Amino acid sequence: MLDLKITITRIVLAGVLGGIIGLEREKKGRNAGLRTHILVCTGSSLIMLVSLYMFEMYQGRVPVDPSRIAAGVVTGIGFLGAGTIMAGNDGVKGLTTAASIWISSGIGLAVGCGFFSAAVVATVVTFITLAFLKHVEKKLEQSENK
Fold first, then answer.
1. Which of 15, 24, 69, 111 has the most neighbouring CB atoms within 10 Å?
2. Residue spans of alpha helices (H) in the chain
3. In the prediction, which pLDDT does 109 show?
4. Taking each helix axis from N to C terminus, what angle separates 34-58 and 4-27, rounded to the nearest 10 degrees?
5. Sign of the CA dihedral with 41 first, then 45, 48, and 50 last
6. 118 band by pLDDT with thresholds 50, 70 and 90
7. Which residues sit opposite 91 in a β-bridge?
8. Between 135 and 46, where is the model more confident?
9. What is residue 81's predicted lDDT score, i.e. its pLDDT?
10. Residue 58: which residues within 8 A CB-CB, separation 6 or more?
């Protein structure tokens, strides 16, 4: 059974990791920033914890699959992220923000089930992608236009 210390650790860690991604988005002035990413990551972690708790509580009495609730999170967050995507005359905007919301939910699920190493590595890769790869893309475009 998950004790209070494990529960607190997982929810707080999810908030911190989501905050790292959200801080980068906030710094760039995106609509889905610090608070959104913390809430998505923390909420996903909580939902995974509830799923694990229900699995332990009903195991052996009724068929319970803890991955079903996690699958629902992935689907639901996809709809939330879709709301950030806008198409206009100057192209499509919000795809990266939608993807950052989606990965934040995945990080939260990983933390919720105790897969801390994957959550931390995914956070680092996501942060590097969001913070630095736009500069690389611009340089590649400039070199192609020469």
1. 111
2. 4-27, 34-58, 66-82, 95-112, 116-144
3. 96
4. 150
5. negative
6. very high
7. 88
8. 46
9. 83
10. 64
